[in-house]
């Protein structure tokens, strides 16, 4: 089954053809998976924190099975270039949240930053 059929099974053949055309023209701008993220070197990004005191929270203690999942996801994101190693005065704990299909979603608990 092609992407247009998966994405919009209820659409008409004409709509699917139009979607297929868009995908062919703009395919490089569309993610093919969770780790397929674009990036640019055209712009440097910096978050100005002003005089805010850094929030550095320790990692949460996790059961061994969850720790292994977190470690695997971190390795995958490092390998894909989604994240990079860093050391600094700011850190927030990782939280695993189960998706509807049961697979893990890697989240970071930034609530203390917003307090």
Question: Could you characterize the architecture of this molecule?
Answer:
By secondary structure, the protein is α+β, with helices and mostly antiparallel strands. The chain folds into 2 domains: 1-30, no CATH class; 64-114, no CATH class. It is 31% helix and 9% strand. The chain has 3 helices and 2 strands. Strands 1-2 form a two-stranded antiparallel sheet. The chain is extended and about 55 Å long. The mean pLDDT is 87. This is Transposon Ty3-G Gag-Pol polyprotein. It comes from Trichinella patagoniensis. InterPro entries: DNA/RNA_pol_sf, RNA-dir_DNA_polymerase.
Please give the structural blueprint:
Blueprint: H1 3-7, H2 13-26, H3 64-80, E1 94-98, E2 104-108
Antiparallel strand pairs: 1-2
């Amino acid at each position: 089954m092609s992407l247009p059929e998966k994405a919009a099974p209820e659409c008409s053949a004409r709509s699917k053809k139009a979607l297929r055309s868009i995908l062919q023209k703009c395919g490089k701008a569309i993610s093919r998976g969770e780790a397929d993220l674009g990036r640019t070197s055209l712009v440097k990004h910096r978050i100005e924190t002003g005089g805010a005191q850094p929030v550095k929270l320790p990692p949460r203690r996790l059961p061994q099975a969850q720790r292994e999942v977190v470690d695997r996801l971190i390795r995958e994101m490092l390998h894909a270039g989604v994240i990079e190693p860093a050391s600094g005065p700011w850190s927030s704990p990782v939280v695993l949240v189960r998706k509807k299909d049961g697979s893990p979603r890697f989240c970071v608990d930034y609530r203390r930053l917003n307090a």
